Structures are given as C-alpha cells and as structure tokens.
Amino acid sequence: MPALNEQESIADVVTSVRQSGFEILVIDDGSSDQTFVKAKSAGARVIDLSMNLGVGGALQSGFSYAVRNKFEAVVQLDADGQHPVSAISLLIETANSSNADIVLGSRFLDSNTEMKISKTRRIAMWILRVVASRACKTKISDSSSGFRLIRNPLLSQFAKSFPSHYLGDTFEALVISGRKNYKVVEISAHFRDREFGDSSATSWASILLIFRALVVTSFGIHFRLQEKAQSKAE
After folding, report:
1. pLDDT tens for each residue of 12-50
2. Which structural domains are found in the chain, ordered by start?
3. What DSSP assignment string belongs to the chain?
4. Which residues lie across from 76 on neighbouring strands?
C-alpha cells in the first residue's frame, strides 16, 4: 500500500486488512504528516521513504520487499479507503483459478456501478480501455485501476523496473504486460468515494497526462519488461 499524507484514513484501512487475515506493508512515500506513525500503530509493516518517489517508485519499493521476502504475489490497494478490502480474497481466488499474472479490480465491470466522473475524463478513460484491451487481448473495463493482484514472475519483473509517472503504474504497466504475454483478468470491485483529501490531478491535468501515456505506449518509449516464457501447456 503506497501512502502519501493519508493520516486520516490509513489506520482504518490497515486494521481492516489485518482483520481479514492478511499481512500488510505500507510504503510511506515521504509523508509530512503522521502517516508512518498511524500505519505502524495499526500493525502494518512500514517502509519509510526519506523523499517522495511518486506512486510508481513507492510501489517498486514494495515489490522489491515482496520478492526479497519470497512472496509469490501481492495485492496492491490505496490508503484512502476507496478499495474494497472484502474483495481481496476474490482477487486471490481468481488468480489461482485462472493462472492470471494480473487480476484487476474493476470499477466498471458491473453495469450497476456508479462513480462521479466528468464527461471529459470518461471519454479519455474509454480510449485507455480500448488500447489496454488490444494489448491484453481481452476486454479491459478499467485500465487505470490501482486495486489489483500481481504474481510471479511478473512481480519479480516489476521489482526490477517500474514506471513512476502518472498512469505509468496502472495503464502503462498493464499495456506493456499484455504485450509481453502476461495474462490479465478482471473482477468486479465496488470502490467507495474518497472520504478524506483530494485526487492528485484535476480533470484537465488528467487529460494531458492521459495523452502522454498514450504517446509513451504508442511509440514504445516506456519501461522495459521481459517477455513471459510460454509453457508447453499454453
């Protein structure tokens, strides 16, 4: 769980994950508030980054920790309480039954899901979904979801190289994984609206960053990922 100035929500999220029977690692990405203290007091293992690396950099630190400590897979979730802890077990079950390398928790797979998203941003997200679906060779409804399970051998690849810019850790990582033959599966996940703080990007800033992400993936100027070796069964 990457976290930046999430002192208001992080203790509740950590407690919820631990009560569900899972270990939790918080990567405090250079917070200036009590995020580290609150996470530690709630029972999380915490990596304290001395400077802000961005979500991608924080995640790579977490992936590296998982690989060093021989974890087979990790579940990534946000510290703001939007991701449903109750769906973690379904992510794991789906990964085991489908042999997927990434299992995404999608906000839009269920047609009854309601989220407050502007029309402009909705159109941009539709474009991202089209690109991601082509790359992953399966329909992707939520290419920018940060609620997901990542397992080896892809986890070890992400520990070595991972993008740190906006949408790099979600959309770009997903697209490149799909192009390198890693299997992606989605499940429906009902996200909650953020209770504390604000999103890190405005609608227009998001549109510009989405355009950047499309350029990066279209022209191949992205992080490098080793292609997945195909087994005889595949």
Report:
1. 999 999 999 999 999 999 999 999 999 999 999 999 999
2. 2-218 (3.90.550.10)
3. -EESS-TTTHHHHHHHHHHTT---EEEEES-SSSHHHHHHHTT-EEEEESS--HHHHHHHHHHHHHHHTT-SEEEE--TTS-S-GGGHHHHHHHHHHHT-SEEEEESSSSTT------HHHHHHHHHHHHHHHHHHTS--S-TT---EEEETTHHHHHHH----STTIIIIIHHHHHHHTT--EEEEE------SSS--SS-HHHHHHHHHHHHHHHHTT-S---PPPPPPTT-
4. 148
Q: pTM value?
A: 0.88
Q: Are 46 and 26 in contact (CB under 8 A)?
A: yes
Q: What is the 3-state secondary structure (H, E, C) of 181-212?
A: CCCEEEEECCCCCCCCCCCCCCHHHHHHHHHH
Per the structure block, which two tokens stand in for 125?
């997200």
Pairing mode, strands 102-106 and 148-151: antiparallel
Which tens digits make up the pLDDT trace of 180-217?
999 999 999 999 865 555 555 556 666 777 777 777 78
